[in-house]
Amino acid sequence: MIRAAVAGVVGFILIFIESMIVMKFKGYATIEFGGLKPFINVWAMNFFVVFAILTQVTNWYVSRQSFKEDNSY
Asked: pTM of the full predicted structure?
C-alpha cells in the first residue's frame, strides 16, 4: 500500500524532472502536454516504472534480511 502512494508521488515529480530535461535540451520555455489525458498517461507510465523498481528493491531487501537470519548455510 505504501509503495503505491510513494510511486504516485514520485511519478508525479518525475513528470516535472522529465519536462525540465526536455526544455533544457530543446531550448523550450514551456511544454504543452496536449490536455489532461496525455498528462495522466505520462503520470501512469512513471507510476508503473517507480512501482516496479520499488517492488524489486523491497523483494531484494526482504530476501537479504531473511538470508542474514538463516545461518544454516
From this structure: 0.80
